[in-house]
């Protein structure tokens, strides 16, 4: 009887709970044996081979030794255990019995095991996750290797064990079952690897025997031992026979398994084959390292799966790493070199990294294999954003350009201008310049850091190139090369001190080890000691060079400032401060001034003893700048309309310096607001102020307000500062608002950016984190300011590239200028989107932004998408309203462009539908979270579609009806319950004639209704439901058959029976051309029974309130003369069968129903679970007393709980009634009431 191996393991595990020694190597006693694959000791079953390998508690060597002992005693039993081991390792529940093993062929056994396989799950041991199964895979491979190694001297040559195993694995590897194929292929490949090791040992023994034989035979005859020669010949013959037999086994496995499975449909199986053939070629190169086997690796490098391509590259790396093996791969390299080079750009980063490493090994094995074009394709990868690729490319670059030393370079000193490093530094400079990516010096340094850090840290040599005169016969660096050297030097300093990749490469700062931290501190100390002396000299030499000075001024922020004191370097500090002073007075470029300001800010640290010295120098510099500015400003303002260019330049240059320093330093004590505000006001009134003066004046005023706010927030301000700040901020915001209307584009952009920042800073967010005292500073933009900001965005951001008027001198912008202009526009859009995200401006102002999502997706798609996401988190309903508003704006624009003859196949209409589709995706997969928002979106969309009547008359569709085609994109976001409710709301806007239309112009309505009906049988299925909002309750009640679960009051039943039967029977003979669906129910109310005839009491409709009719378009309120006749005709045919059943049930259960209802009414709140549900619908229509004076438009209907109370309480209340079990009529009534109240 076959049982699951896993079940057997569980049962046996209980028996051996107290015996932990069984199953190990100590079990070799006379009672040891194997029965049906179960290990036996002293007649007691313990564990199978699979369980022992899986548990891993016993050493693999001991398990194999036990099996060998059992094999020597009973070959069939032990081999049966080994067969079941492979079967069970595949995850098969069946087991091979002794009878099957003796009388069935392998193919029959495999077919039987396939039938026993568990097809419910696709998992099997090799694919299961977790540490236990990872260990199992290792133990599985080890078991096969140890088994062959222990049997290599006798058992594998008995022509029984290996033949049986190879035959079984071959059959399993050809199975259609993936688990069999995967497991057997892995076993066969590992078996092949073990046989390769055996063959290698045999080859070594044969060579040793041959040498011994030759040595013995070369002896003189007197000393020659003939018997020893015979023994050596016999031994060599046996070894040769064994070698031939092993090779036959390997050939069988290779041809029967590898050749078929290296192109298996499963990538994991292909990867196993390629990985193992790489091992064979490396271990036994004499037999396998030839083109007959290499071709499989070359072919597989084109595999579609990155995992397989990766195995190909790692296999080849093991071959090219050895120069001896690499020299035997010329033909392969010439054939597949181009493919390897192209794989450096593989879409899988891991594959690209290994391809570059492989080319590095190829480069080491031979310099002539790779051409200059091949190397250049790898060189540019040092600038890759993916750091592992860049580091691998850096290593390749270092090996190619820096590792070869000529005879003239031998014996050169290690450091200095004439050292080997000097030559390599020049090579780095030349490569950097030739790459034409000068702004990415940090990327180059980071790529070379792991392999050439010693070279990049040779700052003495770099300084020597910059300061020392060239020696005789030496070519000096030109200006461009010196600029590149300064940049590389700065990047190397930053890399040494910060220890993390540059921005854009890597995920951020990594945690440094203790050794790395110590090295970082040592490098920082060494940098300070070197550059504290050299930096003033470098600044003095390159004082007028903008690029060099900007980079040099960034070096002090990496200093250890304590060394200025401990190393007695104060005089060098004074020299540095003097040079910075000179740079400030000589330069007006923003980047240079910013670097000077940042350097002063770093040096003015109160924690260090040099603070007073630096603070005095800074104060003197600022005093001179501000005195000069005030003096120039007075003269400048007095000139009036006749502005002198020289005076304007002096004011501008001084204002630039003040603005740059005000960014990092508090200049509040100089009270600059009044002076600069006068300057701005004059420029606003005259209109002829130079744009750069206005821009920097606004920037400086912005800094003044921010520093003032910082003081107020910290509590360090005096009384009245808050009021002063409020006045200054309000006046400046008004000033910026005026400048937005300026003629100059640069001024408008600056005013817009600053105004957005101020509105965000002084919004309601300012009182967060316990800063309620700043509430008086909140500044909210009015509607006019919001409109101006939005118009600015629409006019200056959403424009075509060719329409941008920022080109210089009317010339066509080059690519760099276009990128810069796009970057500027992105910043402007981001500034405004932050106002939407932080709820500073109304969310619906984002409609004009969101409608540009698809048109400008390439330029601003990421910004708009993030804004959509953040806005949805603020208010889902308002977010939905904004989305539908943006679509409506696009629709109106399309109508104004194309007129009334709208083509729904046009690119404009399809573009709006695509935008709607993308909008719908932003609601996510959780429909309950966005339920209210999506419903409100549909409500607004329906109202918009029916808002404007057709100019062609009443018989034509509304002008905006095609908008329903766009609204269809959001139908999938409605839950089924809400689709019915929205459908009802749609039909309030429809006339009876609309539902019967089939012309193309009505297709949007048909499509939209179909999307709400969720696969209805006919387009007219909701005609009756639409009428239900306005029509008769006669069909409203009959649409749902009366049963024991939906009972009427006895009095009402009795009054309706005769009239219903007569009405139904009268209409039986009338045929209807359309098969109508059961209509949805609406809430109904009875008129006073005193004023109604008996037959009307159950057939009178609840009419929609007057206010609701007033909200509908005029053409929807037209009364058809034969309206009631049409309704009766259509519904009678749909329900006559149900009416007949209804009459029978009424006559049968009349007395019982009357009794139940009377008891239910008397019980009131004390209803039992059995009696609550039947009166959900009709209790509220029971009598005159219940409904007299009730206004159904303004009240909620309280219903008794349904049977599933827990489900109802878990649903959150929203626009829809929370009970999904409630009668449709009540749910729709509530929703229609809420829509009215909206």
UniProtKB/TrEMBL annotation:
Alphabetized Pfam families for the sequence: HEAT_SCC3-SA, SCD, STAG
Q: Could you confirm whether the keyword Transmembrane helix appears in this record?
A: no
Q: Write the signal peptide boundaries.
A: none
Q: Which GO terms describe its biological process?
A: cell division; chromosome segregation; sister chromatid cohesion
Region Disordered: start-end pairs: 1-38, 1030-1060, 1198-1222
One function term, GO molecular function aspect: chromatin binding
Question: Would I find Protease among this entry's keywords?
Answer: no
**GO CC annotations, alphabetized:** chromatin; chromosome, centromeric region; cohesin complex; nucleus
Record protein name field = Cohesin subunit SA
